[in-house]
């Protein structure tokens, strides 16, 4: 997933200085961003007041969009560095191609996990013959310094483990929940889970008090720790929780995101996560010169050009502005 903003601004994130060490209820409002020709997304992270949740550094929610007779998602080849991308669908399909030669069609509740490591490029598009509706989320996970130069690779897991309780089915995307692990490769203590709630469900979900958490509402009407949550919004929950009260006022879908607070300070600009202005500038130059990031074969169109770097030097700061 690309950040297609042509006026891309640097986002400084990471470090424990602004992590809420106790439970909080901080509602994050999205901003609307155009993604390609026909897809509009709601960007929840990075947010004006909150940059990361654990190692989760970027969250877009899109749909449900009626794309019958439309091209749907069309994201040309673009680069990534220093992160993992997570493709997650509730409806529709996304065709993934990347510079390692991977080709996969990701369908609802299948994990498309791309580890950029030092450098990768990829494209994403709705298949020519596609379902009427497109609804999902695209997320980035920051790689820690010890692993941010790993060899790029792609994983596609079509059968993920689940945890069930009365009124709840939780699909484990990354990390583990209630002792059940995902097969997806991770590089920091992290959790991503898709929660399907039945109308009337009322339960407490077990959590790790050392993690910070947020909930993204995908569909339906819910109360999360007594806070009403509508689709396309995110509730930051802080740390120190051993459980999370959930109540569904309709059939509903949520994404639970969490992890140990990310200690390292980062610079995120366009589709790169780095540690210095010089590193980001070099990555942009490498992409524009056609080196390092490889080539995506099979996409019918030109790769994306990188936006201009902002004036001055990009500096690391903290987790909130």
User: Gyration radius, to the nearest Å?
Assistant: 18 Å
**Number of structurally distinct domains:** 1
* Oligomeric assembly: single chain
CATH superfamily: Jelly Rolls
**What is the CATH T-level topology?**
Jelly Rolls
Helix content: under 10%
* Overall 3D form: globular
Number of strands: 26
Task: Return the average pLDDT rounded to an integer.
Answer: 92
CATH class designation: Mainly Beta
Major β-sheet, in short?
8 strands, antiparallel
Secondary structure class reads: mainly beta
Number of helices: 1
Amino- and carboxy-terminal Cα gap:
24 Å
* Beta strand %: over 45%
* Low-pLDDT segments, ≥5 res: 317-321
CATH architecture: Sandwich
H-E order = EEEEEEEEEEEEEEEEEEEEEEEEEEH
Cofactor: Fe cation
Protein name: Pirin
Pfam family, one: Pirin
Keywords: Iron, Metal-binding
Key features of this structure:
single chain, mainly beta, eight-stranded antiparallel sheet, 26 strands, seven-stranded antiparallel sheet, disordered C terminus, Jelly Rolls, 321 residues
Structural notes for this entry:
It is a single chain. By secondary structure, the protein is mainly beta. It has a single domain, classed as Jelly Rolls (Sandwich). Helices cover 4% and strands 48% of the residues. The chain contains 1 helix and 26 strands. The chain has one helix spanning 277-289; strands at 11-14, 23-28, 31-35, 39-45, 56-66, 74-80, 83-91, 94-98, 103-106, 111-115, 120-125, 133-142, 153-157, 162-165, 168-177, 180-181, 190-197, 202-206, 212-219, 222-224, 227-229, 234-238, 243-248, 252-259, 265-269, 272-274. Strands 2, 14, 15, 16, 17, 19, 22 and 24 form an 8-stranded antiparallel β-sheet that branches. The chain has a 7-stranded antiparallel β-sheet with strand order 3-4-5-12-7-10-13, with no helix packed on it. Strand 20 (222-224) and strand 21 form a beta hairpin. The chain is globular. The two termini are 24 Å apart. The relative contact order is 0.23. Residues 317-321 have low confidence and may be disordered.
């Amino acid at each position: 997933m690309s950040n297609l903003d042509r006026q891309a601004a640097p986002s400084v994130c990471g470090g424990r200085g602004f992590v809420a060490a106790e439970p909080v209820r901080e509602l994050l409002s999205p901003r609307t961003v155009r993604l390609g020709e026909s897809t509009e997304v709601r960007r929840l992270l990075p947010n004006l007041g909150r940059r990361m949740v654990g190692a989760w550094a970027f969250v877009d929610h899109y749909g449900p969009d009626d794309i019958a007779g439309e091209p749907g998602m069309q994201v040309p080849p673009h680069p990534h560095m220093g992160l993992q991308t997570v493709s997650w669908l509730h409806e529709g399909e996304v065709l993934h191609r990347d510079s390692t030669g991977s080709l996969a069609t990701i369908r609802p509740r299948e994990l498309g996990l791309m580890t950029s490591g030092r450098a990768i490029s990829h494209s994403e598009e709705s298949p020519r013959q596609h379902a009427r509706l497109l609804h999902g989320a695209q997320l980035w996970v920051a790689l820690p310094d010890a692993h941010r130069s790993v060899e790029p690779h792609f994983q596609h897991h079509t059968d993920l483990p689940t945890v069930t309780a009365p009124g709840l089915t939780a699909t484990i995307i990354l990390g583990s929940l209630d002792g059940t692990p995902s097969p997806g490769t991770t590089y920091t203590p992290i959790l991503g889970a898709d929660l399907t709630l039945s109308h009337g469900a009322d339960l407490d979900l077990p959590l790790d008090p050392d993690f910070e958490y947020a909930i993204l509402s995908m569909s339906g009407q819910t109360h999360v720790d007594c806070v009403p949550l509508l689709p396309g919004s995110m509730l930051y929950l802080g740390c120190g929780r051993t459980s999370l009260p959930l109540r569904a006022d309709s059939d509903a879908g949520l994404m639970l995101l969490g992890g140990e607070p990310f200690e390292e300070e980062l610079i995120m600009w366009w589709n790169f996560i780095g540690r210095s202005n010089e590193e980001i500038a070099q990555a942009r130059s490498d992409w524009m010169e056609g080196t390092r990031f490889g080539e995506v074969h099979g996409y019918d169109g030109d790769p994306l050009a990188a936006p201009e770097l902002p004036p001055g030097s990009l500096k690391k700061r903290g987790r909130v502005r």
